[in-house]
């Protein structure tokens, strides 16, 4: 019989081949969102469906199952917390999930995602949900079928989809965290609304030349640690980060000449994702150790750089003079205090990706609230616009004037990413807890940021989060890094610490 080392090496070699095949799909998916002409959608759907089927066939092969069966003894692998045991455990989890899905379903989902995203782009441009409804119906039906195939035990159908992005998490657990947190957010939003402080956000409606935005955003992303020798920044209808593997990570953003925060903070956000991808161990590519811990942990990295760093006073003490140089007509005469208050303006808004730190979480909870009945079948896709508008009014006391500012604003449903949204709010909670720990370990982060020194924080994240990959599930990783279970308290401390002062609460 082969030795444990030989059996383990055989498994990891096969996992890396599967990852390589999937990376080919990532390249085609990125191109679809950036440079592919609209006329190529049908052919691209066929390409991606073929690759999805090939990958699924390899990821569910009986031979892979035999390799995993030969590596069941965690003690033989070095103990349950060892890197080898983690790689085998997560490979087995992926294998068991994949084997429950027929190749036909995987290929149909791939085709629906590709064509659905193209339909979403056109529908959003026309502000017309009816033009996308047919694709949403197809995608929801396919995700319902996936949930039934995967199974959800004594839970609810939505659990099967949530687990794909946040391994081990359940709908009930997320509700338990979100409920009290939402109540505190509502109180804070109400207190801010009652304040007589009114930041001048009109200054962001001035002209910010797109080429200057592009250059300024790139410099900021580079300053916080994104390596452009192993990545690039392009434009897309909806900002995203896509990693093709070691040495090739792609960021995208979108520009509006008369709205500076959108592209700038979108770039910082996606750069945070990119820094995580670039920090994963290259030699572990294709295995759990070369993969992010969860989508929530991934979001913690992007939200940390976007908000905890990028919207902080020390960050702008360092960067504001550079911003004035880049945009002299818009910011040349604007005092830093006025600019900083505007960057941290809190008020209900239509667009999630442009929302402030406080109300952003309510945007996520709204989507979480709608996705559950959408998957259970209690909410029909045709009724989504009405349900969205009613729920939005309940959360924000406003009703979206059109579908583009309402239920068509996000790409996720067209891409089949149902169950993904809760990870954004979880990411904020993780980010706050990690950031508190980083400050305790590193000392005066504010002083570092004022001097443009972002490397210490990046290296701390590299050591404590990125280099661990998926050695631990998200909740366990939080405890390993901070010594405490996940709590909303650090995020509430952060929000009150900043906004109680800004709004004189």
UniProtKB/TrEMBL annotation:
Its EC number is 3.4.17.19. Coiled coil: none annotated. Residues 81-95 have a biased composition (Basic and acidic residues). It holds the Pfam family Peptidase_M32. This is Metal-dependent carboxypeptidase. CDD domains: M32_Taq. Broad specificity carboxypetidase that releases amino acids sequentially from the C-terminus, including neutral, aromatic, polar and basic residues. Binds 1 zinc ion per subunit. It comes from the Bacteria. SUPFAM superfamilies: Metalloproteases ('zincins'), catalytic domain. The active site is at 270 (proton donor/acceptor). Gene3D superfamilies: 1.10.1370.30. The keyword Oxidoreductase does not apply. Keywords: Carboxypeptidase, Hydrolase, Metal-binding, Metalloprotease, Protease, Zinc. Its cofactor is Zn(2+). The keyword Hydrolase applies. Residues 74-95 are annotated as: Disordered.
